[in-house]
């Protein structure tokens, strides 16, 4: 173990492939977060069977520190299903950076609107997503809160739908 990485170190999103798959599988959330997100093993298995699912590793200082999975939906929308930062690296701004990089990628791919969901008791995720411009729009059958990225209001940080 080399200790947590600093946000100032180069942070990027890369596709999950054979070079980093094992590192993604080794990422762990805190035991109190196990009920908040499916394992990366399950996500990678789902993605292997569904070409619309896109998986990404968050790399900082050449170490894999987080993981995300989103769906390119047939109707042109994007749905972020999973975002996680390894427990050793949480609380240092990497989760927010992961979300910003994901949103840049979805915007560049022309996916809109963008949805995300989380367990209702997941206050850290709720506040993070809200601060990025995601508003509650629905509930899934399993009780997950569904949020949609809405256009920015003056001074806000929401989606800019006029972007090319
Ligand atoms: C949600 C998650 C990705 C955030 O990652 P992170 O690296 O800790 O996030 P950051 O350090 O960028 O913090 C983001 C915000 O949450 C706040 N936060 C982070 N951990 C917190 C905690 N334990 N308690 C209270 N606030 C917390 C930070 O203060 C920050 O707020 P700010 O930017 O307004 O200051 C991470 O907690 C995680 O992997 N959780 C388990 C999986 C999960 O719940 N995923 C979301 C649903 S799919």
| Overall pLDDT | 91
Please give the number of β-strands.
7
Largest pleated sheet: 7 strands, mixed
What is the CATH class designation? Alpha Beta
The CATH homologous superfamily corresponds to Gcn5-related N-acetyltransferase (GNAT)
Overall body shape: globular
Describe this structure as you would to a colleague.
This protein has helices spanning 21-26, 40-49, 94-108, 123-131, and strands at 11-15, 53-60, 63-72, 78-85, 114-118, 134-139, 145-149. By secondary structure, the protein is α+β, with helices and mostly antiparallel strands. It has one domain: Gcn5-related N-acetyltransferase (GNAT) (Aminopeptidase). A seven-stranded mixed β-sheet has the order 1-2-3-4-5-7-6. The chain is globular and about 40 Å long. The model is unreliable at 154-164 (pLDDT under 50). The site of coenzyme A has 21 residues, from strand 4, helix 3 and helix 4. Coenzyme A binds next to strand 4, helix 3 and helix 4.
Task: For this entry, give a set of tags.
7-stranded mixed β-sheet, Aminopeptidase, 164 residues, alpha+beta, binds coenzyme A, globular, disordered C terminus
Give a short summary of the structure.
The chain is an alpha+beta fold and 164 residues long.
Itemize the secondary structure elements and their pairings.
Layout lengths: L10 E5 L5 H6 L13 H10 L3 E8 L2 E10 L5 E8 L8 H15 L5 E5 L4 H9 L2 E6 L5 E5 L15
Parallel strand pairs: 4-5
Antiparallel strand pairs: 1-2, 2-3, 3-4, 5-7, 6-7
């Amino acid at each position: 173990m080399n200790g947590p990485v600093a946000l100032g170190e180069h942070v990027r999103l890369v596709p999950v492939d054979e070079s980093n798959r094992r590192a993604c599988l080794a990422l762990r959330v805190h035991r109190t977060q196990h009920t908040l997100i499916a394992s990366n093993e399950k996500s990678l298995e789902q993605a292997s069977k569904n070409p619309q699912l896109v998986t990404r590793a968050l790399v900082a200082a050449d170490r894999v520190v987080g993981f995300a999975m989103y769906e390119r939906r047939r109707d042109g929308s994007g749905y972020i299903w999973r975002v996680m930062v390894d427990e050793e690296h949480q609380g240092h701004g990497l989760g927010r950076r992961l979300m910003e990089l994901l949103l840049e990628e979805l915007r560049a791919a022309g996916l809109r609107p963008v949805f995300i969901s989380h367990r209702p008791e997941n206050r850290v995720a709720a506040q993070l997503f809200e601060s990025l411009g995601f508003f509650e729009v629905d509930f899934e059958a399993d009780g997950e809160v569904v949020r949609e990225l809405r256009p920015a209001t003056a001074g806000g940080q929401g989606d800019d739908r006029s972007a090319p």
